[in-house]
Amino acid sequence: MSSKAIAEFIGTFILVFFGVGSAVLMGDQIGFHGIAMAFGFSIVAAAYGFGAISGAQLNPAVSLGFLTSGRMGMSDFVTYCIAQILGAVAAAAVVLMIASGKADYSLAENGLGQNGYGAGYNGGYSMLAALIFEFVATFLFVTVILGATQSDAPVGFGGLAIGLTLAGIHLVGIDVTGVSVNPARSIGPALFAGGQALADLWLFILAPLAGGLLAGLLHGAGITRSPHVKPQG
């Protein structure tokens, strides 16, 4: 396994362990605000820890944005996506093992921080609302990432900008979908939670990928890119 793949695996593990772990293990104590900060902090940690190795994309939707903007090749895209999904699954498994050590924890009753929508999930938002939120939020997230990591962006601040953006997105949308904006983040918990989480998973794959695709196309076309930066070929 390449160093880039290992970095993406560990970085995505950090994202899911911090974010999903905060929801499952500490959600009652820290609430939505605390969970949002945990997701944001995880991105900052991974970005500064692994950004120099792989770019710390940690998200198939982000990698798709890099691919369609011309800043990534197909081979790396496939490798990154596999590593990201495996990292998310591994982190979800670890969170589940820890949560299962509490006497009153039940996967069926308490869940595993999985994404969802509709009656019985957080605010009970509709499928359309969930689709719109995940598409728009991912588009904005990937647009920020592409801009913050272009060659003439302020040096050293990319990880902070990206982490704060993810925290802000969570502050807006946890009550809507639990916030995915990342197919890997959704796949990991859903594989263990099963049931409705798996039934809803298509939305948390399709909408983020569509948002990342649009962000990448606009960046590649120069619409959301500094005029001084050329796509990598």
Structure report:
- This protein is an all-alpha fold.
- It has a single domain, classed as Glycerol uptake facilitator protein (Up-down Bundle).
- Helix content is 73%, strand content 0%.
- Helix 1 crosses helix 6.
- The longest helix has 52 residues.
- The two termini are 24 Å apart.
- The model has no long low-confidence stretch (mean pLDDT 94).
What is the CATH superfamily label? Glycerol uptake facilitator protein
- What is the second-level CATH architecture? Up-down Bundle
Enumerate how many helices there are, as a single number.
8
- The stretches of 5 or more residues where confidence is low (pLDDT under 50) are none
**Which outline best applies?**
globular
Largest sheet: none
Euclidean distance between termini CA atoms: 24 Å
Mean pLDDT comes to 94
CATH class label: Mainly Alpha
Strand content: under 5%
Structural class: mainly alpha
The topology string of helices and strands comes to: HHHHHHHH
What is the total tally of β strands? Answer: 0
Number of domains: 1
The percentage helix is over 70%
Which fold name corresponds to the CATH topology? Glycerol uptake facilitator protein
Whole-angstrom Rg: 17 Å
Membrane topology: Multi-pass membrane protein
Family: Belongs to the MIP/aquaporin (TC 1.A.8) family.
Pfam families: MIP (PF00230)
Organism: Paracoccus onchidii
